[in-house]
Amino acid sequence: MESLEKLLAWGGIRRDVVFLAVSAVALAVSIAGLPGLPFDPAWVAIVLCGLPIVLEAVVGLVTRFDIKADVLVSIALVASVVIGEDFAAGEVAFIMQLGGLLEELTVARARAGIEKLVRLTPRTARVLGPDGRERVVAAEAVRVGDRLRVLPGETIPVDGEILAGQTSVNQAVMTGESLPVDLGPGDPVSSGTVNQFGAFEMEARRVGEDSSIQRMIRLVQSADAGKAKIVGLADRWATWIVVIALSAAAVTWLVTGEIIRAVTILVVFCPCALVLATPTAVMAAIGNATKHGFLVREGDALERLAQVQVAAFDKTGTLTYGTPAVAAAVSLDPALDGGELHRLAAAAERLSEHPLGKAIVRCCPRAEALPAVEDFQMLPGRGVRARVAGRDLLAGNRALLAEFGIPADAADGAEAYIRQGCTVTYVAVDGRLAGYLALSDTLREESAAMVAALHRLRVEPMLLTGDHEAAAQAIAGRLGIRQVRASCLPEDKLREIDACQAAGRPVCMMGDGINDAPALKKAQVGIAMGGVGSDIAVEAADIALVDDEVRELPHLIALSRRMMTTIRVNMAFSMGLNFLAIALAISGTLNPVVGALVHNAGSVVVILHSAFLLKWRKPE
């Protein structure tokens, strides 16, 4: 069994390369015409390269009545051998296999960037028992809640949270970030990432099929260029071409009486380049998209994306980071400046579990040296109360001030921030209003440039968000988005997308949350934020953005359009070359040897033309 596995591992591309090398030498010896040989060396190429083609054609024809390119190639091979054109038969077989190898290499290179995820899947994990003893188990045996130890140089086996230890983790496989990230207790870690320096202990939170690495692998496995509609069109054309080729060869033989012309027609009429035109371009484009952080789940997603006229976005977590930050600290007390007001509020909020409270602490410039807190009290729905450096502090909303009889009339400037979409936290010191902090969602640095690039591509951006009107208009104004729909429920987003598409304007939807999943499914193309997005959003989308770098969206749209141009050029070139070669074959200008060389060289040109998509970059 082990030797069989080694034999199979040796096969594939390496076997094809060896067969092609041997066949090339045999054809060279055949054309040189060395005397004294017991048989024409071209038969080596016929057997090594041609026999697999004939066998595949026969199996497809018998089992599925699959009339494709291999059928015509096989007929051309057999006909060439029957009339004694052994070299032509060997040449056809050699160049066909060479074209197939180039396609295989293009596909392999295109998928290389994402298939490394499969190889990075952790095999084992170090599980700590209640007594602290360590045992090594298979990664799939880890359960939620297990305590694990990860040593330097090891791959993190499951998603979880660090419990003890300081470390530096290389997250390039998940985020594309080349520099390691310093992490400590309370920080999340993802499976498939590599622990570089310190040992740490963690608690398993998402294991097995729910882990980040497994989710990415499922995306890899679902990437399939075979679903593109235009591929089916090429296959249907190939079927008709087989019928036309056989008819043309038969008529030519009957009219001219020269079977060699009929054989030449069969050789040059093989629709190889036409069949290769689409899948090679799609897979090369998928490979390019992968290098820019996109995992394409559906083969025809790029074809559909090329038609998009509107790009709809969720706000939180897509155009913004989804984490609040202090935008302004305004003091109304002459004895306090804005920085000191922020510092006192951060001290009061240090023990708070509320996201706004945590944001106030996180954004404080001197958070490590906050004054001591006494008598901390959480007031749900209103804010917090605490004693900081001998002073009574309140931090919260207007309801909190009203509860303690503190007027908020002096904070008129807060309304301007509220109109901009900010959330305001009022701060009172010793029973008097001291000022307020304005907090807002943090806009991604690349969002504005991305929206501007979409305008240049003549794609209209549209904001679909569940946030209130003020927040939506504030973000849209900063980004230059004119179409805004605020306070959207999931069904509202569906209606907006449906209305656009009913009006003949295909929509690309980008979002990250569970509430975006229906819209992602409804849109012409759905793109989920794979890093911060929910599992449901990722599963509903056609494409996942692994590193959440939205600036690459214009490149993806431009790439899809370039891919369609490449496919059309490939198909036009292959059809034109076919009909030119047929005309020359009917007139007797081409013989089977030259015809095979001309036609199959066309297949190589198509594959190489598609391969240029791998490194294509949208012009700035």
In words, what does this structure look like?
The protein has 23 helices and 22 strands. The protein is of the alpha+beta class and 620 residues long. Strand 14 and strand 15 form a beta hairpin. Helix 4 packs antiparallel against helix 9, helix 5 packs parallel to helix 23 and helix 10 runs antiparallel to helix 22. It is elongated and about 110 Å long. The two termini are 55 Å apart. The N terminus is likely disordered.
Q: What's the short version?
A:
The protein is an alpha+beta fold and 620 residues long. Helices cover 51% and strands 19% of the residues.
Oligomer: single chain
Q: What fraction, in percent, of the residue positions are helical?
A: 40-55%
Q: In whole angstroms, how far apart are the ends?
A: 55 Å
Radius of gyration: 33 Å
The largest sheet, given as strand count, sense and whether it forms a barrel, is: 7 strands, mixed
Low-confidence runs: 1-10, 223-228
The total count of helices amounts to: 23
Shape: elongated
Overall pLDDT metric = 81
Secondary-structure-derived class:
alpha+beta
Strand ordering within the main sheet:
10-22-21-20-11-18-19
Residues in β-strands, percent: 15-25%
Q: Got a strand count? A: 22
Could you give the topology of this structure?
Elements: H1 2-10, H2 13-32, H3 42-64, H4 69-82, H5 86-119, E1 124-128, E2 134-138, E3 147-150, E4 159-164, E5 167-170, H6 172-175, E6 181-183, E7 188-189, E8 194-195, E9 200-206, H7 212-222, H8 229-256, H9 259-268, H10 272-291, E10 294-296, H11 301-305, E11 310-313, H12 315-319, E12 320-331, H13 338-349, H14 355-362, E13 373-379, E14 383-388, E15 391-396, H15 398-403, H16 414-419, E16 423-429, E17 432-443, H17 447-456, E18 460-464, H18 469-479, E19 483-485, H19 490-502, E20 507-511, H20 517-522, E21 525-529, H21 535-540, E22 543-545, H22 553-587, H23 592-611
Parallel strand pairs: 11-18, 11-20, 18-19, 20-21, 21-22
Antiparallel strand pairs: 1-2, 1-3, 3-9, 4-7, 4-9, 5-6, 5-8, 10-22, 12-17, 13-14, 14-15, 15-16, 16-17
Helix pairs in contact: 2-3, 2-5, 3-4, 3-5, 4-5, 4-9, 5-7, 5-10, 5-23, 8-9, 8-10, 9-22, 9-23, 10-22, 10-23, 13-14, 22-23
